[in-house]
Amino acid sequence: MISLFKQLKFSLHYLFTPPWDTGIPAPELVRTIARLPPGRAIDIGCGTGTNLLYLAQQGWSVTGIDFSPVAIAKARRKLRMYSPVLLIADATRLGSLNLPGPYDLALDMGCFHNLTDAGRDGYAAGLAGWMTSGGIFLLYAFQPGSAENRRGIPKEKAIPFFEKDFRLSKYEQGTGRPSAWYYFIRK
Fold first, then answer.
1. CATH 3.40.50.150 fits 4-13+36-186, yes or no
2. How much is the pTM?
C-alpha cells in the first residue's frame, strides 16, 4: 500500500511542473510502438499523461493510473479529446482494480522503483494478470548509484519480481543518473 505521505508529496510536486514531467514522450516508447499495431495500453504511474497522449494519438486505447489526484486531473485535461480511462489508484493493487484490459502494452517510468518489496510483489502479480500473452512491458527504473544515492532498485533485484510471468527481452542502461530500461514480454 502506498503511504499517504508519499501520495501528498507527489501531489505537491504536481501542483507545479515536476522535473520529470518533460512533456515529451519517452523515445524508448516511441521506438517500441513504431513496430506495433495499435492496441490497449496502460501507463502505471502515468503522471500528467504525456505518454498516454502520444499513445492515443497513435491510435491506442489508453488507461492511466496514478496515486496523485492532481496528476490525474492534469492528465484528464491533456487527453480531453480522447477517451482514456484514468484512475486514481494504488499500483501495488493492480490485481484488484477494475480495468478495461487486457493490455498489449504496459509502461512504467518511475513507479516501480519507488515501491517497497511487498508493494513490488503485488504490482508484478497484478500486472501479469492484466497483460496479454506476448504483451510488452517497458519498465524504466532508477538504480542505486553512489553511497549517497541509494534510491532505486538494482537489476539483479528488479528482474526476479517479473521472471515468473515475463521474459526479459532487452535491457539497457539509462542515460544521466543511474537507471535502466527493461523490456519484458508476457509469457
1. yes
2. 0.89
